[in-house]
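Thread: Newbie trying to understand structure tokens

Hi all, I'm a second-year student working on a class project, and my supervisor (Dr. K.) asked me to get a predicted structure for one chain before our next meeting. I've only ever worked with sequences, so writing a 3D structure as a token string is new to me. If someone could post the tokens and maybe explain what I'm looking at, I'd be very grateful. Here's the chain:
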Amino acid sequence: MTNKEHSEGITMSGGGIYSLATVGAKHVIDAATPMVVDAIDSLSQESITTGFTFSDMGTADAGTSLSMIGNVIDAVSARVPEAPISIVYSDQPRNDFNALIANVYGLGPFDTYLDRRDNIFPLVSGTTFYKQIIPSGTLDIGFSATAMHWLSAKVCNISNHVQAVGAEGEELDAFRAQAHRDWRQILLHRARELKPGGKLVLINFAKDDQGRYLGNTGGVNMFDQFNLIWQGFVEQGRITRAEYENMTLPQYYNTVEEFSAPLQDQDDPVYQAGLRLEHIDSRIVKCPFAESFAQHGDAARFAEEYIPTIRSWNESIFFNGLSADRPLDERRQLIEDYYGTYRDIVRDSPNGHGMDYVHAYTVISKTS
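---
Reply by user tm_fold:
Sure, no problem. This is what the structure looks like when written as tokens:
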């Protein structure tokens, strides 16, 4: 399987399951909503009057951002009541756009914002944020949350772990270099899309100044737990070493300094394209399932609620890592056994498990 094929095989859980399983991702977006509203308030009146465009990049099934976009509509309407508002949802072509449309139009488990006023135009694109999504000079606010840690390509397999947080040496260097290239590519496309004075509000997974990252804020390291289970399957002869290495997640968590670099270096093409860093800080949003467990104390319930949020974003990579020479039913059973093993570990020893979110909350403006 080529790196391109591997990258295109990454999907979030479909059928509307993703947003239902990832309530923590909604909490992350809710925390960013005041930043989005402030960005709208900073726009020129002329820009909004001629039509307001907002993009939600890497949106998955759109459920986690619905309430935030409702606030976007209210903020724009407060300034220019009749302004037409375009909401551009984008994700990779394999995304479950049926679930997205159901959620946006109120056909799923979430309330829709479409009944707030007229002149709201939801638009859907299968173009990823690694390409230009909308015409140049037409975007007022670009938004993305919990998405841009996915690399455009898996540059290599990691020999001793499933994620770059456990990589070393040349393998880590390769992931870091790819992440830096990808970040610049993302920003240059957004620079073309933005109107002068437009802004980006990007909420990206990060490694903070204390070395904390998703699922590693104290207690059990989530990614190490992923790795230990799969290594156990290798030792038991259930999967091959090659399959284990193919399960490498094509992700990298930038630091605040890495995110900031192309926006502050006057010789960098990103800076020269007119993008400026207005604000960046790192924040932790606590795992809602671990917090709930602290209240109810039912370990079995915690395990049943916690595992689906993990499974929603990594199952496709792990499944695709298994050899296509295996019968389909066998691959499916291995995946079920993997998550079942994880569930039993959490149930039997729940303390310390959880997926706290560590993000860099960033606001970027376009000067010219």
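A couple of things are worth pointing out once you decode it. The two ends are 42 Å apart (CA to CA). Residues 65 and 99 are 14 Å apart (CA to CA). Feel free to ask follow-ups in this thread.
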